[in-house]
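Record filed here:
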Amino acid sequence: MGKGAGCCPSKNRAPSVIQSDPDPIQTPETKSDHSIPIEPVVETRKLRIFIVFYSMYGHVESLARNIKTGVEEIDGVEGVLFRVPETLSFETLTAMKVPVKGDDVPEILPEELVEADGLLFGFPTRFGCMSSQMKAFFDSTGGLWREQKLAGVPAGFFVSTGTQGGGQETTAWTAITQLAHHGMLYVPIGYTFGAGMFKMDSIRGGSPYGAGVYSGDGTREPSQRELELAQHQGKYMAMIVKRFGSHSTQ
């Protein structure tokens, strides 16, 4: 090889160095302010208790609205009112002098039940059992039962009867079969209402099974204590649901 043509560079020539333009994307700029990255704000939805009811003359609806008030006394929990579909014809309802229902409470579809973290079902009695309208609704939940979509969801009842011996307890406990087949967790109120459960100075619906009202011939209005018991049931259920956490699939 000629002089200076080997593997070693010439003493008189600096070795060549290939330089590339810095890529601003690949070469992050060093910051000197030591800023702390801001965590994204994650919004958490409230737990929801669906208050699903059938009310012919408005007594059960009065309980339902007070239950909703009680539910929302607990931070992070909201009550949502739903009606079940009517099964009687317009002509029959008219003959029975049933008032027209408002449109502020929507009808619920069976598949919507899975969106609830807790459920409270309200209905009037028919010979010591739930009304046919509520039974028809439960009968339509076969798809949910087949896949046990409601298993583990806390649930309870509130009722209306015409007389003191008309089924304040039996109307609720005969409905427990519906919860059992779905695997739901029955939540009675027990005697958590305190002294109000023992007072005998006035007629009062309700029992350890849940809130209740006496409707008489349909003209009696719920008493203040009956409404207070309903509100208590809502608050009590909200505390239970909050302890259990979310069961919703949504």
Notes: The first strand starts at residue 47 and ends at 53. The beta strands are 47-53, 77-83, 118-126, 129-130, 154-161, 185-186, 212-214.
